[in-house]
Automatic annotation (TrEMBL):
InterPro entries, sorted: PRTase-like, PRTase_dom, Pur/Pyrimidine_PRTase, PuR_N, WH-like_DNA-bd_sf, WH_DNA-bd_sf
Annotated Phosphoribosyltransferase domain residues: 112-232
Signal sequence segment: none
Taxonomic path: Bacteria, Thermotogati, Synergistota, Synergistia, Synergistales
Name of the protein described by the UniProt record: Purine operon repressor PurR
Domain Bacterial purine repressor N-terminal: 4-73
GO-annotated molecular function: DNA binding
UniProt superkingdom: Bacteria
GO biological process assignments: regulation of DNA-templated transcription
Amino acid sequence: MKGQRTERLIRTAARFLTCPSKQLSLTSLAEDFLVSKTVISDDVAIIDEALSREGMGGISVDRGRTGGASFVPRMAAGVKDTLLKEIMDLLNCEDRFLPGGLVYYSDILFNPHYALRLGYAMASLFSETRPDVVMTSEVKGIPLAIFTAHAMGIPLAVCRFRNRASDGSAVTVHYPTKNGDVKAMYMGTKQLGKGKRVLIVDDFMRGGSTAAGMLLVAKEFGAEVAGTGIFMVSSDPEVKAVSSYKALLRLDGVEKRQPKVALWE
């Protein structure tokens, strides 16, 4: 249906934002709105500029035969810092710090108001790695991981700590914890394929044993690890079970019993 340009811009932007990192055909858009492809291309350029000014990413256009375009979330540094400082202020309340060097953040990660934007921030850290699947472990890492996968336009695979009949057949790996115990981790065989590029996302890292377990799962499936992203990493211990990772926040002062959440640098 042909309409006013303002309406067309809003509806086109809505289609991009609803399915980030998914390519939309410019030809199909032109046919839907009964305008030429040149007009749609001009609209896309306006939307791209507006999203860039908001610091949330931009529109990537394929000039090849497909003539498609997609919204690629890339959170600007200033927007990301504002978000993380808002979350830091919430987390640095004294009543959030728990015995054992832990901090309560479940209400933040399970709140879509924060989790969606955190997913965009995490996806921005790995926008050049082009993963096929996001992998996490149950339970608290799931909200961040699902919104990261949403931003990247890819599926989520979840490692579980006990196998369920509803998951079908599963691959099992055993990994050591920081206490010297050995735990099992399960991944359904239908969730991950050989040769896939995997982005590992988790909520918290202290010694890194859970992330190391997911690395073993990826290896067992013959998958390639594109990167590891963590919501919050404890400064102690300094040496982790994984050698390479990126994070959004850092938890300091645990050993001195003066915990404080800071930006990851």
